[in-house]
Amino acid sequence: MTRRRFMMLLGGAAAWPLAVRAQQPAMPVIGYLSSLSPEGNAPRQDAFRAGLNEQGFVEGRNVAVEYRFARGQYERLPAMAEELAGRPVAVIVAVGGEPSPVAAKAATSTIPIVFVMGSDPVKVGLVASYNRPGGNVTGINLFTETLGAKRLGLLHELAPQAAMVGFLNNPRFPTAENQLRDAQEAARALGLTLRILSISTEQEIDAAFAIIARERIGAVLVGADPFLTAVGRDRIIAAAARATVPAIYEFREQTAAGGLMSYGIDVADVYRQVGVYAGRILKGEKPAELPVLQPTKFELVINLKTAKALGLSIPDKLIALADEVIE
Fold it and tell me: Are 155 and 131 within 8 A, CB to CB?
């Protein structure tokens, strides 16, 4: 064999693996659009990855995830959604309340979107119906924003002497007015006075609790809003402890972080299911044919250590109702 012939064969052999690699499909990319901040919310991302794993996808091995966090600044979401849609990504996971999926939907009508939100996606215009969403959007409706009346009732059982209850509400959140109306109706039914405290920045948290202390507000209902429940979570919990005022929250993770009591869905399981849906879509299923899911289990969680620090005695009835008691 001539040297020229040998070099030609060698060159072909060296090029062959490159050609094969070039024919391999590119690793799919998921765009993860959240109105929250990454700090303190790692369990949600872990649950999302667990759902992906159930479908055979492992981040960094056969799927990539591009994360975008608005940190409670909802006005940043449209630009973030546009950026992800322009990559383009294979799926957009839009979580942390209504602003994320609304921004994602405005950015693309073709890329599949899987959402987590607490308001009705049909009323918002994201899907045609729960069973047959149509279009490019599906996900999970938590219904947490409609549970304010239930939380207020539980808070009243815990602190019946509190005639005035402070309601922490973020006016920048799309469902703020609906939540406020529901809370006011529930307060009237219970014979309570509701003191509205608007909070949309971390600095306003301290100002609100200064009012709570000055006006001797007896208990606090924290609104269902990503900024209040996640971004400002630790600051609110710390402020409530300093003011020695009982408060009820939306999610277990707030109670686990030191809050007194929470009533809502199992948020980790919801994010796991979002990962499952994202994986199914990566496998070829269409969001139009994946029904919008709704939680069937709601959990009451009580932190006895926090209750002791506040000098509160939890009624036996609430202890019996609790799904989890943190000691």
Answer: no
